Amino acid sequence: MLTVLLNNQFSIPIISASATSTREKFVNTMNMSLAFVDTTTEEDIYNIATMLNNQSSVICVYIDGVRYFTGFVEEAQINESREEFTISVKLQSKTIDLLQSTYIPPIFDKVNGGSNFFTNGEINFLNIIRITLQKLGWVLIDPQGSDSDKRFTEHNVIAIINKTDNAKKPITLDNKKGTATVERLFVDGTKASTTVKSLKPSATESAGAFLMRLANELGLILTTNADGDIVIEDASATATPPLWQTFTKRIVGDTAYNNISSLDITRNYAQIYNKYYRVVNDADDQNTPEKSSVSSKGLPKASINDNARKTRHYAYSAGETVNVQQQVTSQEMMAKTMFARSYDLSITPISHRYTTIHDLQPNPQERKLIEAGDLVFVYIESLGLNEVIDNELMYVSEVSIKFAKSNIGLSVKLVLPDYYSNPSIRPRKQLIRQRKLSLT
Fold first, then answer.
1. How many other CB atoms sit within 10 Å of the CB of residue 99?
2. Which of the four pLDDT bands, split at 50, 70 and 90, describes residue 51?
């Protein structure tokens, strides 16, 4: 059952709804259709008018009593005729105001004991978000605090959900050199101070666009959740999900616990190359073997994907000098990332909640809604590709939901965690295992 509440209190009657949420997008969107019918009351009409005319109204959407969306009305289309009166409404999550507000550079000299944002001093990504929100008129609250429900009744109240210590990692500003640097962890376990290129926003850049760009460079993802909060997490670090968060489709054998009704697999071979080179300081080691430190160390000069045509090569630039091992591991990461982005998997689950998997599933009334950003185990036997995805860890990257005639339908896109890596900017320590394929 889908329920819509105005300011988390007054019911809004709807006849249909659709929504798409993604892990990598800062703003989620929901579309609804409303109609005046015989059962529409005067109170319903008043609430709908308030929702449409008061831009400060907060709209909350619930599925089976669980909050699914929090945001504002961004667009409304009213259709009137003798026979009917319908309204189409576009909702967007609270973070839309950050994405549409032109950025005002924050000054740190009077906040948190820091220095001017563009002069000497130390700051971090989490504080940059906090200062930006304050300058734009937001009120930050603790999502676990006694006033947390204000997020659903007051338009300018929001929380930050930080899931990573990397958001607190100091960014060092050097006014003399005109640079900003941050310490980063490379794949071989070494640490190095590297330049942050995206720290200064452009004059007309929106707050959300700047923060997402900076997050990407720092290896973070900036997104939102069902409560309309700002969520910060590592792009590709993973944690083991509960065993019952599983999507299964077996062709033979134990098919009783299949919870996928249909699936689509798309392979984009344009994303896959045979050789990957990291160009360091405009000198391609692969093309200068007599001077190559990679070659002298006895390490491979390029990462190889034997499944790709040998005539396909991919060179990318390194923004800073790195040691030999970091160059090789970055190339390997790039190969994995490009492979992950070449592989699209879409499924239609049998329910909008995670369903029974043997005796590991919790009480049916407590089953979690399937949401973007979830980590899941995936076991799929594909007859067309003669392939098995064998209990692979994947992210739910996108969820599309449709509601009509009291029925809820769901489609889900899944990606490998390497999809979110950015090796050309930040080679990171990988916390996941390689994808396994069983081919016969």
1. 17
2. confident
Compute the C-alpha angle 260/265/269, nearest 5°. 165
Assign residue 76 the CATH number of its domain. 2.30.300.10
Same domain, 368 and 251: yes
Q: Do 252 and 356 belong to one domain?
A: yes
Find the DSSP H helices in 177-320.
Answer: 207-217, 293-296
Same domain, 216 and 359: no
Q: Is 180 helix (H, G, I), strand (E, B) or coil?
A: strand
Domain count, the chain: 4
- pTM for the complete prediction? 0.77
Q: In whole angstroms, what separates CA 130 from the centre of its chain?
A: 20
Residue 358, exposed/middle/buried by CB under 10 A (0-12, 13-18, 19+)? exposed
Q: Are 65 and 8 in contact (CB under 8 A)?
A: no
172-190 pLDDT, tens digit each: 777 666 677 787 665 445 5
Residue 308 belongs to what domain range? 270-340
Q: Between β-strands 387-404 and 16-22, what pairing exists: parallel, antiparallel or unpaired?
A: antiparallel
Q: Supply the angle between the helices 125-135 and 207-217 in degrees, to the nearest 10.
A: 180
Same domain, 381 and 262: yes
Is 64 among the domain residues? yes
Supply 204's token pair: 């007309």
